What we know:
By secondary structure, the chain is α+β, with helices and mostly antiparallel strands. It has a single domain, classed as Alpha-Beta Plaits. The protein is about 20% helix and about 15% strand. The chain has 2 helices and 4 strands, in the order βββαβα. The chain has helices at about 50-55, 70-80, and strands at about 5, 25, 30-35, 60. A two-stranded antiparallel sheet has the order 1-4. A two-stranded antiparallel ribbon has the order 2-3. Strand 2 (about 25) and strand 3 form a beta hairpin. Iron/sulfur cluster binds near residues 3, 20 and 39. Iron/sulfur cluster (SF4) binds near residues 18, 23 and 50.
Amino acid sequence: xxxxxxxxxxxxxxxxxxxxxxxxxxxxxxxxxxxxxxxxxxxxxxxxxxxxxxxxxxxxxxxxxxxxxxxxxxxxxxxxxx
Length: 82
Ligand code: SF4
């Protein structure tokens, strides 16, 4: 399942450099997570790095993007991040 950013986002930019998948960008009004790139930090980190860093606690699971660990690992490989 990819994560999503809720309206509580304060546009602080803290999460962008933390994401190992380069999945977070600034949107029109708040930051957004690209579900095609977010792997819940699988397999790089135990904890989701945006969740750890976010001061507004607004990075949450996106119920519209449910995926198994195998699917997340396959997605990570397809990103070719090395
Ligand atoms: Fe990036 Fe990990 Fe947050 Fe997904 S959970 S947006 S991969 S930092």
